[in-house]
């Protein structure tokens, strides 16, 4: 592919919903040069925006075990118990971070709900707009709207980036300046070697990254 159709970054995040934006913020905070790509607008064109801005979780420490048991019952005990406990433990910190961005979050039994400033605005849109504004203010995060990922880019038996099509029909290849560090169901990132220890510690693949109390757990290779 011609050089003009290539982009490079330390970290590539594909998917700019709430999870993808928070992942980009976590990587940028750790010192990485980040590309955050999405086929639509950053934040707005996502399931996060279409949601009701509601998060399930124990609203008080004394209800934590009750909430965990309820979630396990709903999941017919097929849940990953450690993940459920992690959500229960970390959810209040994550909600506090969102509140620090100026979002109004109402606590009810077993959940938190974002309250929009205007009744005409979907709560999920209020949520992602506020986080997208934070992303837009970070010099270390480059956003790419209208980028449709079609394939992973491989080299020497490893995935090193993504290839896709822009809105203008032109092809674009985004390549990481290093080897793959982390993947998750709705977004992917790769990181150059010298940032690996800062982002991932001594693990061969990133296990957990944190941003605003939210933990992103890697799936490995």
What's the layout of helices and strands?
Blueprint: E1 6-9, E2 11-14, H1 18-29, E3 34-37, H2 47-50, E4 54-56, H3 64-74, H4 81-100, E5 104-108, E6 111-115, H5 123-136, E7 141-144, E8 147-155, E9 158-166, E10 171-176, E11 179-184, E12 187-191, H6 193-200, E13 208-211, E14 214-217
Structure characterization notes:
The protein is an alpha/beta fold and 221 residues long. It has 2 domains: 1-49 and 122-221, FAD/NAD(P)-binding domain (3-Layer(bba) Sandwich), CATH 3.50.50; 53-118, no CATH class. The protein has 6 helices and 14 strands. The protein has helices at 18-29, 47-50, 64-74, 81-100, 123-136, 193-200, and strands at residues 6-9, 11-14, 34-37, 54-56, 104-108, 111-115, 141-144, 147-155, 158-166, 171-176, 179-184, 187-191, 208-211, 214-217. Strands 1-10-9-8 form a 4-stranded mixed beta sheet, with no helix packed on it. Helix 1 (18-29) links the parallel strand 2 and strand 3 (34-37). It starts with 5 loop residues before the first strand and ends with a strand. Mean pLDDT is 80; it is low at 179-192 and 203-221.
